[in-house]
Specification:
Distance between the termini: 95 Å
Helix content: 25-40%
Number of strands: 7
CATH architecture of one domain: 2-Layer Sandwich
Number of helices: 3
CATH topology of one domain: Nucleotidyltransferase, domain 5
Largest sheet: 5 strands, mixed
Shape: rod-shaped
Strand content: 15-25%
CATH class of one domain: Alpha Beta
Structural class: alpha/beta
Radius of gyration: 28 Å
């Protein structure tokens, strides 16, 4: 005697729900990996400490590294290369503050020359980035 269970006529099928879970886990992993890679692209600079005010979110940052090289938007440039680019950006966005992020061990002469040349190109809103002064 042969008994029927009711499953003889059914075809095999693939469950979609576990596959969707795996796809979402992979998506989260890749998004996290991409965010992690973009955060660590900056130039490491030891800022001097001092009192200061918060700056506007929209500003142009020029970095002076410990080896006295100038960095603008992730590119290392010479003083002659950086001046026309900053002047062009300032013309496109009038009133755009220019911030100088200088390493503590960078030479003062580089910063002074940079400020003088930027002022010659008509950029008057200049400030230095500092760490907040924590001493009372």
């Amino acid at each position: 005697m042969r008994l029927s269970s009711g499953y003889e006529d059914r075809k095999g099928r693939i469950e979609i729900v576990p596959l969707i879970d795996i796809i979402f886990l992979l998506l989260v992993f890749f998004i996290y990996a991409m965010v992690r890679m973009t955060v660590e692209r900056g130039v490491k600079v030891a800022l001097p400490s001092g009192p200061g005010k918060a700056v506007a979110a929209k500003s142009l940052v020029i970095t002076i590294t410990a080896s006295n090289s100038l960095v603008l938007e992730g590119r290392t440039l010479t003083l002659a290369q950086i001046l026309p680019e900053v002047a062009a950006m300032a013309r496109l966005q009038p009133g755009l503050p220019v911030l100088i992020q200088g390493d503590r061990s960078a030479d003062l002469g580089v910063a002074v020359e940079l400020i003088a040349r930027l002022r010659d190109h008509g950029i008057t809103q200049l400030s230095f980035l500092v760490n907040p002064d924590i001493s009372p």
